[in-house]
Amino acid sequence: MADLLNIGLSGLSANKTSLAVTGHNITNVNTPGFSRQDTVQATRNPQFSGAGFIGSGTTLVDVRRSYSEFLSAQVRSSTALSSDVSAYKSQIEQLDSLLAGSTTGITPALQKLFSALQTAAEDPANIPARQLVLSEAEGLSKRFNTVYDRINDQNQFINKQMSAVTDQVNRLVTSIASYNDAIAIAGANGAQPNDLLDGRDEAIRQLSTFIGVTAVPQDDNTINLFVGSGQPLVVGSKSNSLQVVPGQGDPTRSEVEFVSGGSRQGVTSLLTGGELGGLIRYRAESLDPTLNSLGRLALAVTDQVNTQLGQGLDLKGQVGTALFGDFNDSALASLRARAFSTNSGNAQPQLNITDTSVLTTSDYRLEVDDETATPPTFKARRLSDGEAVDVTAVNDGSGNYTLSLTQSNPPALPKDQGFNVTFSAAEFAKAESGDLYLLQPTRRGATSISTTLDQPDQLAFAAPVRSEANLQNKGNGVISQPDLQSTGTAIDIVALKAAFPPLTLTYNAAAGDFGGLPAGATLTRVDNKGVPITPAPTPLFQPGQQNNFVLALADGTQVSMSLSGRPENNDRFDISFNQNGVSDNRNALKLADLQNKQTVGVDPTVTGIGTGVSFTEGYGDMVERVGTLTAQARQDSEATGAILKQATDNRDSLSGVNLDEEAANLIKFEQYYNASAQVIQVARSLFDTLINTFR
């Protein structure tokens, strides 16, 4: 009877535990990360009798959780990937709406400005039309400023969000280290603490929503976590942390440092996955290039419009005044070159734009290699593609250095980068070898553009040189209005008046060319593209067809023009300074033509058509790039969401609690419990019968 009683008691105990485990499963059906548990039973050691081995009941050997490390790892990696894409998508959709919007983008403001210029060119003396040009220019400047501010707001949000995310990461890392410690202690007896394991796995899953981690299980049931290129966040019961700090080169961009004891390491570029990885990826792939592209466009508009205005005359006969502010102002030039906070020296160079047409959308890193060399040596690298850039330092004789940067790959085609860096003698004295500088030639272009001209009569719509055929000419020769070739600097009225007092070209029918050229001047026949015809035609002028010429004076002044018709011998053609060109609109037409002129992203090593894009095309390319990335992000979001759902479903199919199954288990274990109780009742009855026999 004692054996039967023990057998019943073992069944009673085992089924009681099974009922408790089933109830535990049911009550935790909604607990995040909970893995279903079940009991594992085994028979007790049998006892030998004369008839053989007789069983002695059952025993519980384990309370096992339904768990797969492979499925859990899939959930972690899918969570990190999905959170990364989700964070990226939420940011780039805002950028796409801003740039492509009909009321928020740059294109409408650009079109309004050039439409106003075309209207003003139809009546260049009309003051209201000129005032409209100023108003639309102001509107374009404000639009650039507003778009920059909105994008910069995103940058500030990313900085704040990076801090918030790293706080969550550090909290979870500390919690996981505590779990590891508790698991190691609880598991010392050989049994697994299921609920602690579930809690830790859920904490790691939550951590994966913020940052991608690599989990490495250990023999003592602890898990070590690593980020980046192997930086240990958790090792056993010890944890390290991440900290967000202002960037060494650009304090407006937060960077992430890995902190372990007293050591720090910058890991921003190494982090992937999770919300933090998505924000960092968005900033590097989309936000920074967009700010640079927008700034390059603003600089190009400023440069091209101001330069063209400097080639014409206003209503008072004066050289045109710049419409937009000077982008090489000393304060702006200093902001484009940022000294790293880790520098030994405290020199502050300036970055001046030299050619907006060849500017790239990249930032650069400049390093002082050896400031004691003669001349001093520097290293530079373009950050967008990691390409090394050659640096040439020139001393002006007073200790001031100008650094020119050119791409030397391939060496046969060096490419100017469109800017130079200057160190005054006083500033260079503060530089030390190893000092680093972040060069951002275009980053602030959109926020620094401003309209400075407020007098409509100072808009230079007239060309500075005019021509006419003498009224006494006998032939029907016709001369076109001359086009003064730009040198990139504003015209000099005094020099032009001296060069064209007027200058008279006299046709020599016998020689087939023109006399009356001043000393040192040349008249060259060119084709429709302005290229000199070689060898020169004989005679130089061909009657009855259009003849294109370039007149070059001894002082370097050049004008292009065409002569056609059939002039008679000694017919004269005058070229003079446009003293009273109030109704002249030739420079206004050139300003309007800038809308379609290829002036952005020009490759200086390539000649011909197609080496650059216009203002509108440049902005369109930027909008198209962001739109493509947005569409890709939406597709990635759907794909990663589906992958995460599949991974979660796979895990839940194994580890999730099924209430129907648990309800069936309740009934089953209750019946087992009742049956075991019945065994005890039988043993009791037998014992009572035996006792009563001896009474």
TrEMBL record:
Residues 5-34 form the Flagellar basal body rod protein N-terminal domain. The keyword Secreted applies. Residues 93-324 form the Flagellar hook-associated protein FlgK helical domain. InterPro entries: Flag_bb_rod_N, Flg_bb/hook_C_dom, FlgK, FlgK_helical. Keywords: Bacterial flagellum, Cell projection, Cilium, Flagellum, Secreted. Residues 655-692 form the Flagellar basal-body/hook protein C-terminal domain. It comes from the Bacteria. It is found in: Bacterial flagellum; Secreted. The keyword Ubl conjugation does not apply. Belongs to the flagella basal body rod proteins family. This is Flagellar hook-associated protein 1.
